[in-house]
Amino acid sequence: MSKVIKTHALLTAARPAVRALRVIAALFCSCTLGSQSFAAFIISPLPASDTLTATGGGIVAKPTGGTWASSAQLIAKVSQLTPTTWHYDYEWITSGKDLSHIIIEVTDGAKRSDFFNISVNAELESEDPRTYSPSDPGNSNPGLPGSIYGLKFEPKSETSDFKFSFDSNHAPVYGDFYAKDGKEKIDKVQFNVYAYNSGFSAAGPGDFSPSSHTIVPDGLAVPEPTTVIAGGLLLLPLGVTAMRALRRRR
Question: What is the pTM of this model?
C-alpha cells in the first residue's frame, strides 16, 4: 500500500473519533463556561445593566413631539443565578401616557417553559413566545419596524412606571424591544403612541450596540450540567473505539 493511500485510510478511520471528541469538548465547554461559551456577543461580566432613553437617542418614540418622545426610558438588568439560569429585570418609565404592552425579543424557537418566575404584576399572551409583526395580531403593533419573536408583557393595572422580571435558561445578549400605548392628540390630530430601540433589526448578534439595544434573553439555552455529563459519557465509547481502530490500522 502506498504512503498516500495508507495516510488517507488512517485519516478516514480517525474521523469518527475526532467528531466524537469534538462533541464531548463542546458539551463540556457549554457546561463549564456558561455564559462565556462560544459566543463573544453574550454579555459579560455580570451583573450588567443598560438604560435607553428617547432623549438620548436609544429609543425611537412616536409621535414626534408627544409625551413618550420626551420621557420614554427602558432600564434593563441581568444577573446570573446558576451556571444555567439568568434573572432579567426591566422598568419602562414615561410621563403622562400609560403602557399598553411591551415586547421583549427572545431566542427564535424558544419555548414557554424556557421563561419562568414571571413577576405577578405582568401578564403574558397565552401563545408566547411567538412572532409579532405590525399587522399580526390584529394591527395591535402600529409602527413596529419589523417582525420580532418575543414575549409580550402587559401590566395588570394602568401605569407609566412598569416593572417586570423573569428567569430564563437563555443567556443575555443585546436585542430589540417594542412598546405601545393608545392614541395621543397633537394639534387636534390623533396619533398612535409607540416606541422601539433605535437599532431595531440591525445586523446579527455580535454587531449589536448597548446604546441602541436592550438586554434580552436571546442567547443559547445552556443545558443542565448533568445532561452535559451524561451526553459526554454516552459519546465517549465511540471516541475510544474509533481511536483503537486507528491504532490497529497503523
Answer: 0.74
